[in-house]
Amino acid sequence: MKDYICSIDIGSSRCIVLVARPSGESLLEIIGVGSSVSQGVKDGVIVNIEAATRSVSEAAREAELMSGLVVDEALLNITGKHVKGENSRGVVAITNRDRLIGESDVYRVIEGAQNIRIPADQDIIHVLSREFHVDDQNGIRDPVGMTGVRLEAEVHIVTAGKTAILNLNKAVFAAQIKVSDVVMSSLASSEAVLTEEEKDLGVAVLDIGSRVTDIAIFVDGGVSFSTTVPLGGGHVTHDLSIGLKIPAESAEMIKRTYGVTRIGMIDPTEKIELSAVHGRPARWILRQEIAEIIEPRMREIFEMIDRELVRSGKKSSLAGGIVITGGGSLIEGTLSLAEEVIGLPVSQGFPQGISGFTELAGGSEFSTAVGLLHYYRRFAGMPHSEQKRSEGHGIFRKIKHWIRENL
């Protein structure tokens, strides 16, 4: 049995591969880090399998060289507008003579909660328990061993597009890497940046990527809402590229180095130099011009997020506030703007529980990749229950069969 685990975060701008070993009770030692420019990915969805495979292979080789180990199996994130979350409830009767609730009863009630209408083009990837009810007693995390005649389960079911899942798996399989599990990006990020206390208190995690922002709301320790907003940091880069008439690569550098989300935070006389491009001479602009492009787009992103928080019906339950992570969250002034728009306390989320190459993998842009590792360590080897996909929805059996038939 291997003593290391790997993760792959295929984003719209970067592909990240991490290799880690367990270190202590809850720590992970990062021993390999690989990163490449994402190709063949648009809005979190693979649109060119061959190009995406090259990105995965390049990042995996870099991680292998650093760690001295082979990346032949990994957890994979999934994101995009096709990822949907829905709450459901299941109810079963406890029929044994002692009315004692066992694991089989928990499995039955979780199965029952999955009896909802799923579109033909979607597959279940997570069935996440929120809480259980035994007779008239609510707020139960683990009902096994309790006595009752009626067991109810409230769950959050996450589905993803079948085509998107298959294309992700095919791209990684072509890089000679086996996919051990597929995890919703916001769920993975929450494993890296949130504590159990924050989840109990009520908190929303916002993972701002390049083209999409993933949202997950935790109340009383469980996921109660998840969705995706189709905007991210890459849209800010595009706006800068158009507004300043510079290439996208230069716009990204300008955003990271001089970007500010609040116009009022900048000295109105401060200037920066734009490098010469395409034969045009270098020129000077006011830094304030950059903020005038960035602030409207970032404000739009947070306004869309706020509408989703209101739609969830859980905004008033977020005593722990908002935790923002992801590469798109790193522009100066982002937390301040988010607090103004959303009206809740906002903090920056960084990957926790890691050692080793933390200087390489400790930034917010690595939250999903690190969270995948924590997710694997937390749930690997557990039976299919509320934390895992139901055996009745064998996504990976279907994927493996499809690969055997089509590759």
Structural class: alpha/beta
Shape: globular
User: Helical residue percent?
Assistant: 25-40%
Sheet with most strands: 6 strands, mixed
Our estimate of the beta-strand percent is 25-35%
Mean pLDDT: 90
In total, the number of strands is 19
Summed up, the helix count is 12
Indicate the CATH architecture of the domain at 84-162. 2-Layer Sandwich
Structure, described:
Residues 381-407 have low confidence and may be disordered. The strands form 5 sheets. The chain has a 6-stranded mixed β-sheet, with helices on both faces. Among the domains are: 84-162, Dna Ligase, domain 1; 233-294, Nucleotidyltransferase, domain 5 (2-Layer Sandwich), CATH 3.30.420. The chain is globular, with a radius of gyration of 22 Å. It has helices at 49-67, 103-113, 162-174, 185-193, 196-201, 233-244, 248-258, 287-312, 334-342, 358-361, 367-379, 395-406; strands at 5-10, 14-23, 27-37, 41-42, 45-46, 73-78, 84-93, 122-134, 137-140, 150-161, 178-184, 203-208, 213-219, 222-229, 271-274, 283-286, 322-325, 346-348, 354-356. 36% of the residues lie in helices and 30% in strands. The two termini are 28 Å apart. It is an alpha/beta fold and 407 residues long.
